[in-house]
Protein backbone atom coordinates (compact mmCIF):
# COMPACT_ATOMS: atom_id res chain seq x y z
CA UNK A 1 0.00 0.00 0.00
CA UNK A 2 1.37 3.46 -0.86
CA UNK A 3 2.18 5.87 1.97
CA UNK A 4 3.21 9.52 2.22
CA UNK A 5 2.53 12.18 4.86
CA UNK A 6 1.02 15.62 4.56
CA UNK A 7 3.65 18.07 5.87
CA UNK A 8 6.31 15.36 5.62
CA UNK A 9 8.86 18.08 4.80
CA UNK A 10 9.41 20.62 7.52
CA UNK A 11 9.96 21.01 11.19
CA UNK A 12 9.81 17.35 12.26
CA UNK A 13 13.13 16.85 10.41
CA UNK A 14 16.48 17.91 11.95
CA UNK A 15 17.95 18.33 8.45
CA UNK A 16 15.14 20.81 7.65
CA UNK A 17 15.71 22.75 10.89
CA UNK A 18 19.40 22.89 10.14
CA UNK A 19 18.85 24.14 6.60
CA UNK A 20 16.44 26.84 7.84
CA UNK A 21 18.31 27.90 10.99
CA UNK A 22 19.26 31.55 10.93
CA UNK A 23 18.45 31.70 7.23
CA UNK A 24 15.88 33.29 4.98
CA UNK A 25 12.21 33.66 5.95
CA UNK A 26 9.83 30.87 4.89
CA UNK A 27 8.25 32.84 2.02
CA UNK A 28 11.66 33.57 0.50
CA UNK A 29 12.60 29.91 0.76
CA UNK A 30 9.43 29.03 -1.19
CA UNK A 31 10.69 31.23 -4.06
CA UNK A 32 14.21 29.75 -4.03
CA UNK A 33 14.13 26.72 -6.31
CA UNK A 34 17.31 25.07 -4.98
CA UNK A 35 15.95 25.15 -1.42
CA UNK A 36 12.54 23.90 -2.59
CA UNK A 37 14.21 20.95 -4.33
CA UNK A 38 16.39 20.05 -1.35
CA UNK A 39 13.59 20.29 1.25
CA UNK A 40 11.17 18.31 -0.94
CA UNK A 41 13.72 15.50 -1.23
CA UNK A 42 14.60 15.31 2.49
CA UNK A 43 11.65 13.18 3.65
CA UNK A 44 11.90 10.92 0.58
CA UNK A 45 15.54 10.14 1.38
CA UNK A 46 14.93 9.65 5.07
CA UNK A 47 11.61 7.79 5.20
CA UNK A 48 11.35 6.06 1.82
CA UNK A 49 7.81 7.39 1.33
CA UNK A 50 6.07 6.55 -1.96
CA UNK A 51 5.56 10.16 -3.03
CA UNK A 52 7.15 13.55 -2.60
CA UNK A 53 5.02 16.64 -2.01
CA UNK A 54 6.39 19.89 -3.37
CA UNK A 55 7.74 22.10 -0.59
CA UNK A 56 5.74 25.30 -0.82
CA UNK A 57 2.78 26.92 0.91
CA UNK A 58 -0.84 27.63 0.01
CA UNK A 59 -0.11 31.37 0.35
CA UNK A 60 2.66 31.38 -2.30
CA UNK A 61 0.32 32.20 -5.25
CA UNK A 62 -1.22 35.03 -3.20
CA UNK A 63 2.24 36.56 -3.00
CA UNK A 64 2.59 36.04 -6.75
CA UNK A 65 -0.66 37.99 -7.18
CA UNK A 66 0.79 40.92 -5.24
CA UNK A 67 -0.87 40.28 -1.87
CA UNK A 68 1.21 41.51 1.04
CA UNK A 69 1.38 38.12 2.79
CA UNK A 70 4.20 36.69 4.86
CA UNK A 71 4.69 33.43 6.69
CA UNK A 72 5.73 34.28 10.23
CA UNK A 73 7.69 31.76 12.29
CA UNK A 74 5.51 29.78 14.73
CA UNK A 75 2.51 31.90 13.65
CA UNK A 76 1.72 31.09 10.02
CA UNK A 77 0.46 33.35 7.24
CA UNK A 78 -0.04 37.04 8.08
CA UNK A 79 -1.71 39.43 5.62
CA UNK A 80 -0.78 43.11 6.12
CA UNK A 81 -3.96 44.60 4.67
CA UNK A 82 -6.79 42.08 5.02
CA UNK A 83 -9.65 42.04 2.51
CA UNK A 84 -12.77 43.44 4.15
CA UNK A 85 -15.14 44.85 1.51
CA UNK A 86 -16.10 44.86 -2.16
CA UNK A 87 -13.65 47.61 -3.12
CA UNK A 88 -10.81 45.61 -1.54
CA UNK A 89 -11.82 42.68 -3.75
CA UNK A 90 -12.07 44.83 -6.87
CA UNK A 91 -8.50 46.02 -6.30
CA UNK A 92 -7.08 42.47 -6.51
CA UNK A 93 -4.93 41.71 -9.54
CA UNK A 94 -4.48 38.28 -11.14
CA UNK A 95 -1.42 36.18 -10.29
CA UNK A 96 1.35 36.38 -12.84
CA UNK A 97 2.50 32.86 -13.80
CA UNK A 98 5.92 34.35 -14.57
CA UNK A 99 6.34 35.24 -10.90
CA UNK A 100 6.02 31.52 -10.17
CA UNK A 101 9.03 30.59 -12.32
CA UNK A 102 11.01 29.46 -9.25
CA UNK A 103 8.27 26.93 -8.56
CA UNK A 104 8.23 25.52 -12.09
CA UNK A 105 12.05 25.38 -12.08
CA UNK A 106 11.93 23.38 -8.84
CA UNK A 107 9.32 20.97 -10.26
CA UNK A 108 11.45 20.43 -13.40
CA UNK A 109 14.53 19.54 -11.33
CA UNK A 110 12.55 17.39 -8.93
CA UNK A 111 10.94 15.21 -11.59
CA UNK A 112 14.48 14.36 -12.73
CA UNK A 113 15.92 13.80 -9.25
CA UNK A 114 13.00 11.74 -8.00
CA UNK A 115 13.16 9.11 -10.73
CA UNK A 116 10.21 6.76 -10.23
CA UNK A 117 8.92 8.48 -7.08
CA UNK A 118 5.91 10.61 -8.04
CA UNK A 119 5.76 14.31 -7.16
CA UNK A 120 2.53 15.73 -5.76
CA UNK A 121 1.73 19.38 -6.42
CA UNK A 122 -0.82 21.28 -4.35
CA UNK A 123 -2.77 24.44 -3.70
CA UNK A 124 -5.21 25.79 -1.14
CA UNK A 125 -8.92 25.75 -1.97
CA UNK A 126 -10.62 29.14 -2.38
CA UNK A 127 -12.43 28.93 0.99
CA UNK A 128 -9.30 28.20 3.03
CA UNK A 129 -7.35 30.93 1.21
CA UNK A 130 -10.25 33.34 1.82
CA UNK A 131 -9.99 32.77 5.59
CA UNK A 132 -6.37 33.99 5.58
CA UNK A 133 -7.10 36.97 3.32
CA UNK A 134 -10.13 38.15 5.27
CA UNK A 135 -9.00 37.38 8.84
CA UNK A 136 -5.43 38.53 8.12
CA UNK A 137 -4.08 35.27 9.55
CA UNK A 138 -5.06 32.15 11.43
CA UNK A 139 -8.46 32.18 13.08
CA UNK A 140 -10.51 30.16 15.52
CA UNK A 141 -14.08 31.04 14.59
CA UNK A 142 -13.63 32.68 11.17
CA UNK A 143 -15.85 35.56 12.30
CA UNK A 144 -14.98 38.07 9.59
CA UNK A 145 -14.91 35.40 6.89
CA UNK A 146 -18.41 34.22 7.69
CA UNK A 147 -19.62 37.80 8.16
CA UNK A 148 -18.61 38.63 4.56
CA UNK A 149 -19.85 35.28 3.23
CA UNK A 150 -23.30 35.68 4.79
CA UNK A 151 -23.60 39.48 4.89
CA UNK A 152 -22.07 40.56 1.58
CA UNK A 153 -22.57 37.67 -0.84
CA UNK A 154 -21.60 39.78 -3.88
CA UNK A 155 -18.19 40.68 -2.43
CA UNK A 156 -17.80 37.07 -1.31
CA UNK A 157 -18.56 35.68 -4.74
CA UNK A 158 -16.18 38.13 -6.46
CA UNK A 159 -13.41 37.21 -4.01
CA UNK A 160 -14.01 33.47 -4.43
CA UNK A 161 -13.89 33.67 -8.25
CA UNK A 162 -10.63 35.59 -7.99
CA UNK A 163 -9.25 32.97 -5.59
CA UNK A 164 -10.35 30.15 -7.89
CA UNK A 165 -8.23 31.76 -10.64
CA UNK A 166 -5.29 32.07 -8.21
CA UNK A 167 -5.58 28.39 -7.33
CA UNK A 168 -5.93 27.31 -10.96
CA UNK A 169 -2.87 29.35 -11.97
CA UNK A 170 -0.76 27.84 -9.17
CA UNK A 171 -1.83 24.29 -10.03
CA UNK A 172 -1.44 24.85 -13.79
CA UNK A 173 2.14 26.04 -13.33
CA UNK A 174 2.91 22.84 -11.38
CA UNK A 175 1.11 20.53 -13.82
CA UNK A 176 2.80 22.13 -16.83
CA UNK A 177 6.17 21.67 -15.13
CA UNK A 178 5.48 17.96 -14.61
CA UNK A 179 3.92 17.12 -11.23
CA UNK A 180 2.34 13.64 -11.27
CA UNK A 181 -0.69 14.39 -9.09
CA UNK A 182 -2.30 17.33 -7.33
CA UNK A 183 -3.95 17.85 -3.96
CA UNK A 184 -6.24 20.71 -3.02
CA UNK A 185 -6.17 21.57 0.69
CA UNK A 186 -9.45 22.98 2.01
CA UNK A 187 -8.16 22.69 5.54
CA UNK A 188 -10.73 24.94 7.23
CA UNK A 189 -13.90 24.11 5.25
CA UNK A 190 -14.97 21.88 8.15
CA UNK A 191 -16.13 25.11 9.85
CA UNK A 192 -19.08 25.19 7.43
CA UNK A 193 -22.43 23.41 7.52
CA UNK A 194 -23.22 21.31 4.47
CA UNK A 195 -25.72 23.91 3.24
CA UNK A 196 -23.27 26.78 3.55
CA UNK A 197 -20.49 24.70 2.00
CA UNK A 198 -22.69 23.90 -1.02
CA UNK A 199 -23.62 27.53 -1.46
CA UNK A 200 -20.45 29.42 -0.58
CA UNK A 201 -17.49 27.10 -1.27
CA UNK A 202 -18.34 24.11 -3.45
CA UNK A 203 -18.98 25.95 -6.77
CA UNK A 204 -15.52 27.53 -6.72
CA UNK A 205 -13.65 24.34 -5.80
CA UNK A 206 -15.65 22.43 -8.42
CA UNK A 207 -14.49 24.99 -10.98
CA UNK A 208 -10.86 24.48 -9.89
CA UNK A 209 -10.99 20.70 -10.37
CA UNK A 210 -12.91 21.02 -13.66
CA UNK A 211 -10.31 23.44 -15.02
CA UNK A 212 -7.51 20.98 -14.25
CA UNK A 213 -9.26 17.76 -15.33
CA UNK A 214 -7.70 17.92 -18.82
CA UNK A 215 -4.30 17.32 -17.17
CA UNK A 216 -5.35 13.71 -16.57
CA UNK A 217 -3.47 13.47 -13.26
CA UNK A 218 -4.89 12.00 -10.03
CA UNK A 219 -6.54 14.77 -7.98
CA UNK A 220 -7.06 14.74 -4.21
CA UNK A 221 -9.49 16.86 -2.23
CA UNK A 222 -8.71 17.20 1.48
CA UNK A 223 -10.18 19.03 4.47
CA UNK A 224 -10.20 18.78 8.26
CA UNK A 225 -13.34 18.08 10.31
CA UNK A 226 -15.31 17.53 7.12
CA UNK A 227 -17.44 14.44 7.89
CA UNK A 228 -20.59 16.41 7.03
CA UNK A 229 -19.04 17.61 3.74
CA UNK A 230 -17.39 14.45 2.38
CA UNK A 231 -20.06 13.61 -0.14
CA UNK A 232 -20.08 17.18 -1.51
CA UNK A 233 -16.27 17.26 -1.50
CA UNK A 234 -16.31 14.03 -3.50
CA UNK A 235 -18.74 15.65 -5.97
CA UNK A 236 -16.33 18.59 -6.38
CA UNK A 237 -13.79 16.26 -7.99
CA UNK A 238 -16.20 15.95 -10.93
CA UNK A 239 -14.81 13.86 -13.74
CA UNK A 240 -11.24 13.73 -12.43
CA UNK A 241 -9.29 10.91 -14.07
CA UNK A 242 -8.45 9.42 -10.67
CA UNK A 243 -10.38 11.10 -7.87
CA UNK A 244 -9.01 10.83 -4.30
CA UNK A 245 -10.80 12.00 -1.17
CA UNK A 246 -8.68 12.93 1.87
CA UNK A 247 -10.17 11.73 5.16
CA UNK A 248 -9.26 13.13 8.56
CA UNK A 249 -9.11 10.97 11.72
CA UNK A 250 -12.59 11.87 12.95
CA UNK A 251 -14.30 9.92 10.18
CA UNK A 252 -13.80 6.17 9.78
CA UNK A 253 -12.62 5.05 6.36
CA UNK A 254 -15.74 2.86 6.05
CA UNK A 255 -17.99 5.84 6.75
CA UNK A 256 -16.01 7.89 4.20
CA UNK A 257 -16.45 5.11 1.60
CA UNK A 258 -20.21 5.31 2.03
CA UNK A 259 -20.10 9.08 1.42
CA UNK A 260 -17.69 9.15 -1.54
CA UNK A 261 -18.72 8.72 -5.15
CA UNK A 262 -18.13 5.25 -6.66
CA UNK A 263 -14.63 4.98 -8.09
CA UNK A 264 -13.08 7.30 -5.49
CA UNK A 265 -9.82 6.34 -3.74
CA UNK A 266 -9.59 7.23 -0.03
CA UNK A 267 -6.49 8.77 1.55
CA UNK A 268 -5.84 8.88 5.30
CA UNK A 269 -6.37 8.90 8.20
CA UNK A 270 -4.11 8.27 11.19
CA UNK A 271 -4.49 10.85 13.96
CA UNK A 272 -1.16 12.78 13.80
CA UNK A 273 -1.18 12.97 17.60
CA UNK A 274 -1.09 9.15 17.83
CA UNK A 275 2.51 9.41 16.61
CA UNK A 276 3.41 11.34 19.78
CA UNK A 277 2.35 8.48 22.10
CA UNK A 278 5.30 6.16 21.46
CA UNK A 279 6.04 3.48 18.89
CA UNK A 280 3.79 0.66 20.24
CA UNK A 281 0.75 2.98 20.23
CA UNK A 282 1.65 4.29 16.78
CA UNK A 283 1.99 0.76 15.37
CA UNK A 284 -1.35 -0.32 16.78
CA UNK A 285 -2.98 2.79 15.32
CA UNK A 286 -1.40 2.12 11.90
CA UNK A 287 -2.76 -1.45 11.90
CA UNK A 288 -6.22 -0.15 12.80
CA UNK A 289 -6.18 2.35 9.90
CA UNK A 290 -5.07 -0.33 7.46
CA UNK A 291 -7.77 -2.77 8.48
CA UNK A 292 -10.38 0.02 8.28
CA UNK A 293 -9.03 0.82 4.81
CA UNK A 294 -9.50 -2.82 3.76
CA UNK A 295 -13.09 -2.70 4.96
CA UNK A 296 -13.57 0.57 3.10
CA UNK A 297 -12.38 -1.07 -0.12
CA UNK A 298 -14.79 -3.97 0.48
CA UNK A 299 -17.48 -1.33 0.96
CA UNK A 300 -16.73 0.20 -2.46
CA UNK A 301 -13.74 2.53 -2.17
CA UNK A 302 -11.48 2.25 -5.24
CA UNK A 303 -8.32 2.01 -3.12
CA UNK A 304 -6.53 3.29 -0.02
CA UNK A 305 -3.48 5.54 0.20
CA UNK A 306 -2.06 5.59 3.71
CA UNK A 307 -1.56 9.07 5.19
CA UNK A 308 -2.26 10.99 8.36
CA UNK A 309 -5.60 12.66 8.99
CA UNK A 310 -3.78 16.03 8.89
CA UNK A 311 -0.18 17.21 8.67
CA UNK A 312 2.82 15.86 10.58
CA UNK A 313 3.19 17.82 13.83
CA UNK A 314 6.58 19.49 14.40
CA UNK A 315 7.11 17.49 17.66
CA UNK A 316 6.88 14.14 15.84
CA UNK A 317 9.90 11.83 16.22
CA UNK A 318 11.09 11.26 12.63
CA UNK A 319 12.25 7.76 13.63
CA UNK A 320 8.63 6.84 14.31
CA UNK A 321 7.59 8.17 10.89
CA UNK A 322 10.17 5.90 9.22
CA UNK A 323 8.86 2.95 11.26
CA UNK A 324 5.33 3.74 10.13
CA UNK A 325 6.43 3.69 6.48
CA UNK A 326 8.14 0.29 6.99
CA UNK A 327 5.11 -1.13 8.77
CA UNK A 328 2.66 0.05 6.08
CA UNK A 329 4.88 -1.47 3.40
CA UNK A 330 5.17 -4.77 5.29
CA UNK A 331 1.40 -5.00 5.64
O1 LIG B 1 5.66 18.34 3.17
C1 LIG B 1 4.80 19.27 3.18
O2 LIG B 1 3.59 19.02 3.11
C2 LIG B 1 5.29 20.69 3.30
C3 LIG B 1 4.68 21.64 2.35
C4 LIG B 1 3.55 22.48 2.93
C5 LIG B 1 3.71 23.63 3.76
N1 LIG B 1 2.49 24.22 3.90
C6 LIG B 1 4.99 24.13 4.32
C7 LIG B 1 4.96 24.96 5.54
C8 LIG B 1 2.20 22.36 2.66
C9 LIG B 1 1.50 21.25 1.87
C10 LIG B 1 1.54 23.46 3.26
C11 LIG B 1 0.12 23.73 3.10
C12 LIG B 1 -0.55 24.66 4.01
N2 LIG B 1 -0.12 25.87 4.49
C13 LIG B 1 -1.87 24.47 4.49
C14 LIG B 1 -2.76 23.30 4.16
C15 LIG B 1 -2.32 22.08 4.91
C16 LIG B 1 -2.76 22.06 6.36
O3 LIG B 1 -1.86 21.88 7.19
O4 LIG B 1 -3.94 22.17 6.62
C17 LIG B 1 -2.19 25.57 5.30
C18 LIG B 1 -3.48 25.78 6.06
C19 LIG B 1 -1.07 26.45 5.28
C20 LIG B 1 -0.93 27.77 5.95
C21 LIG B 1 0.20 27.69 6.92
N3 LIG B 1 1.53 27.88 6.56
C22 LIG B 1 0.16 27.33 8.29
C23 LIG B 1 -1.08 27.06 9.08
C24 LIG B 1 1.50 27.30 8.75
C25 LIG B 1 2.02 26.81 10.09
C26 LIG B 1 2.22 27.87 11.12
C27 LIG B 1 3.15 27.34 12.19
O5 LIG B 1 4.29 27.83 12.25
O6 LIG B 1 2.76 26.42 12.94
C28 LIG B 1 2.33 27.65 7.66
C29 LIG B 1 3.79 27.74 7.66
C30 LIG B 1 4.46 26.57 7.03
N4 LIG B 1 4.10 26.01 5.83
C31 LIG B 1 5.58 25.87 7.55
C32 LIG B 1 5.90 24.88 6.63
C33 LIG B 1 7.04 23.91 6.70
C34 LIG B 1 6.31 26.21 8.86
C35 LIG B 1 7.20 27.40 8.63
C36 LIG B 1 8.67 27.14 8.90
O7 LIG B 1 9.13 26.00 8.90
O8 LIG B 1 9.38 28.15 9.09
From TrEMBL:
Keywords: Cytoplasm, Decarboxylase, Lyase, Plasmid, Porphyrin biosynthesis. Substrate binds at residues 7-11, 57, 132, 187, 310. The gene is hemE_1. NCBIfam families: hemE. One of its GO terms (cellular component) is cytosol. InterPro entries: UROD/MetE-like_sf (IPR038071), Uroporphyrinogen_deCO2ase_HemE (IPR006361), Uroporphyrinogen_deCOase (IPR000257). Its EC number is 4.1.1.37. This is Uroporphyrinogen decarboxylase. It comes from Mycolicibacterium arabiense. It comes from the Bacteria. Residues 2-11, 120-136 form the Uroporphyrinogen decarboxylase (URO-D) domain. Homodimer. Its main location: cytoplasm. Belongs to the uroporphyrinogen decarboxylase family. The keyword Lyase applies. It holds the Pfam family URO-D.
Amino acid sequence: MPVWFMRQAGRSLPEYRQLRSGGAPMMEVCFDSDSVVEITLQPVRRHGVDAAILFSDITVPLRAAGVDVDIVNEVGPVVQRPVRCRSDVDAMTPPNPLSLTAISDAVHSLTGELGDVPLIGFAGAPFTLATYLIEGGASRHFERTKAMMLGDPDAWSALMWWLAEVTITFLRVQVDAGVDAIQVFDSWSGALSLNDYRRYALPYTTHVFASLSDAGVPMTHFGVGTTQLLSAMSDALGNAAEPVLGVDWRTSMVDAASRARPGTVLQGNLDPVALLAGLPVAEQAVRAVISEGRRAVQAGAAGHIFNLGHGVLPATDPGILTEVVNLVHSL
